[in-house]
Design goal:
Elements lengths: L1 H6 L4 H75 L7 H13 L8 E7 L4 E3 L10 H13 L5 E6 L13 E9 L5 E9 L1 H9 L7 E5 L5 E4 L10 H11 L5 E3 L4 E8 L4 E8 L1 H4 L2 H46 L14 H40 L1 H19 L3 H18 L5 E3 H19 L3 E7 L7 E3 L4 H11 L7 E10 L2 E8 L4 H11 L4 H14 L4 E6 L4 E8 L14 H4 L4
Parallel strand pairs: 12-14
Antiparallel strand pairs: 1-2, 1-5, 3-4, 4-5, 6-7, 6-10, 8-9, 9-10, 11-13, 14-15, 15-17, 16-17
Helix pairs in contact: 2-3, 2-8, 10-11, 11-12, 12-13
Length: 596
């Protein structure tokens, strides 16, 4: 706190300016930054969701085309079996087969432009679904297809990535996604090889060109290599392969915001081929130049801050100028001993109200000074009375001491003992400097009180003490137990001629000291009835409770409870143990020697 106070400006004008900056300008700046970030995050989230939905639709469409290609291969096999069964010796015209391939391709509608069907028979003749297709002159392709067919242990279907001129057993350069299928007759004998080629690159380029918002797409294979990208000069983000592998490993589909390229990346997997299609959405398309927008916002805020600073200094000067005038007048007020007044006819508005308040303050101060002088004179008179009253207890103790020695001189030891016991009680009650005393000393006061009461009640009761030696110097409120013993004697034993027993038990329980004062007297109900008949207020217990509240607040308490025979007073105070002074180790002998 001292360091913070040292950094605070001393003048009110600078404090007002600092307050405006800290509590208005700075929060406004932070709110604007947060609002901009939230808006940007919201747009990025919405763009990512839309891009992910668009990407999933493309992947789903791609899988549908693959499924339809597979279904058409099965359809072609059945159609060829029918043609061969209808022809003599299994020979059909080339035009019939090519027409069949064209019809199947036409069933793909718009997607048929990216798919081509080629059938190569065992005789080396090829048939295609396009007019300027391979035909019989493509002997290299026919020889390769027949060679691949003869290498198969049994008829099968197989997806391969091939170029337009690749053979089934040749090297692939990933131009086409090709399905190879063995065509069989009714007797499961091979008739030829069917190649269905899908130009996925042109299809992907055609599909992405139809979208309203253009993005860059990357098609990655299982190893993370780029099979195709829709824009040749598009720069692939750094760490794209690592992010895709992480997406596959965790199953997450959260978009990635790449700050380096200022773009949003989304991905969707083509499960049947272990490929991944990635879309890259450039944020500049939506936000424009984010850096320029931010710089413009900062420049605008800087100009706003400059204007605000100038206005703040002007306003603070307008406020502090009258205050400086008032400060000077207050300095004159102290030097003239509250005899200065501000003329109200020279000011207007708030300043006139301030001048009137200042004059009223001066009048109130003068009245307060007069009251303080009167109170000071009264306080001196009360102090004099207190000094005079302190002589009365002094005289009373000396008188008791005289009565004690006079009784001893006449051989009346009982009266002397009563005087000693009464002197101990009186001396302790007059000592207003201590509120807490040792438990042992409280027990000694109880014993002094008992000596007086035994003489009065002619030894009709006994008292026992039960507490550990280690609790002798535990602290308890002064005269907190003696009124409890007094209650037990006055109300519990009032109608008992003999047999009265009082047991005082003390022990420590966790952080508290518990003291029980039990008697076998008349009980709570009889005592309450007797108090009601006497119409005398019982102030002893209330006094103890009030003192406990003042000393310990809610950590102490006094409760009364009925026993099977008699009453229990339970006192609970915080456990406070004290090391005794040397003067206190001698017991109560010092009390007997009072002489005034």
């Amino acid at each position: 706190m001292s360091r913070i106070k040292a950094l605070m400006p001393s003048s009110l004008k600078n404090r007002l300016f600092l307050s405006f900056v800290l509590f208005i300008v700075l929060p406004f700046f932070l709110v604007q930054i947060r609002s901009y970030d939230q808006m940007e995050s919201l747009y990025e989230e919405r763009i990512g969701e839309q891009s992910q939905y668009q990407l999933d639709q493309m992947v789903s469409y791609f899988e549908q085309i693959k499924t339809r290609i597979l279904m058409t291969s099965l359809q072609l096999e059945k159609e060829l079996q029918i043609l061969l069964a209808q022809s003599e010796e299994g020979r059909v015209e080339k035009e019939q087969i090519q027409q069949l391939l064209k019809e199947v391709k036409a069933n793909l509608f718009a997607d048929g432009a990216f798919v081509n069907y080629t059938l190569t028979g065992l005789d080396g003749v090829s048939y295609t679904s396009i007019d300027n297709g391979m035909g019989v002159e493509d002997e290299a392709w026919a020889a390769g297809a027949i060679g691949w067919l003869r290498q198969q242990d049994r008829p099968s279907m197989q997806w391969l990535l091939l170029s337009k001129d690749s053979r089934p057993n040749g090297q692939a350069n990933t131009d086409l996604l090709t399905l190879f299928s063995v065509v069989q007759d009714r007797n499961r004998l091979p008739l030829g090889v069917l190649r269905i080629s899908f130009d996925y690159r042109k299809w992907l380029q055609d599909q992405t060109g139809r979208f309203l918002i253009q993005q860059d797409y990357f098609l990655l294979n299982e190893q993370g290599g780029v099979l195709f990208q829709t824009r040749p000069d598009a720069s692939m983000p750094t760490g794209l392969q690592k992010w895709v592998r992480q997406q596959h490993a965790t199953g997450e589909r959260e978009p990635l915001v790449d700050r380096q390229t200022s773009s949003i990346l989304t991905s969707s997997g083509i499960e049947s081929l272990n490929w991944t299609l990635v879309a890259q959405f450039p944020l500049q398309v939506f936000f424009g130049d984010i850096g320029a927008v931010q710089r413009q916002a900062y420049v605008t805020f800087g100009l706003f801050t400059l204007v605000f600073v100038v206005m703040t200094f002007f306003i603070s000067s307008t406020v502090t100028r009258p205050l400086r005038l008032l400060r000077n007048k207050m300095s004159d007020l102290t030097r003239s001993q509250f005899r200065v007044h501000l003329p109200t006819d020279k000011y207007r508005g708030e300043m006139m109200e301030m001048a009137e308040s200042f004059n009223q303050m001066v009048r109130d101060l003068n009245r307060s000074v007069e009251r303080l002088k009167i109170e000071e004179r009264r306080r001196e008179a009360v102090h004099f009375q207190i000094l005079m009253q302190q002589m009365n207890p002094h005289f009373l103790l000396n008188t008791l001491n005289t009565i004690k020695w006079n009784a001893y001189a006449r051989g009346d030891g009982t009266t002397g003992e009563i005087c000693i016991a009464l002197g101990r009680l009186l001396e302790t009650s007059l000592n207003t400097e201590e509120e807490l005393i040792y438990l042992q000393r409280e027990m000694e006061l109880i014993e002094a009180y008992i000596k007086i009461q035994r003489f009065r009640y002619e030894q009709s009761f006994v008292i026992r003490y039960e507490y550990e030696e280690g609790l002798r110097y535990a602290l308890v409120p002064k005269f907190s137990l003696q009124p409890l013993v007094e209650n037990a004697i006055r109300h519990g034993f009032a109608r008992m001629k003999e047999g009265g027993v009082i047991v005082i038990r003390a022990w420590r329980e966790e952080g508290s000291l518990l003291v029980h004062v039990d008697d076998n007297g008349a009980g709570l109900q009889a005592s309450a009835a007797e108090k009601e008949m006497s119409r005398r207020p019982s102030i002893g217990l209330n006094n103890i409770r009030e003192r406990l509240h003042l000393l310990f607040k809610g950590e102490a308490g006094l409760e009364l409870a009925s026993l099977e025979k008699g009453t229990r007073a339970a006192l609970r105070v915080p456990f406070l143990n004290s090391t005794p002074y040397e003067a206190d180790k001698g017991g109560i002998e010092r009390v007997e020697g009072f002489t005034g």
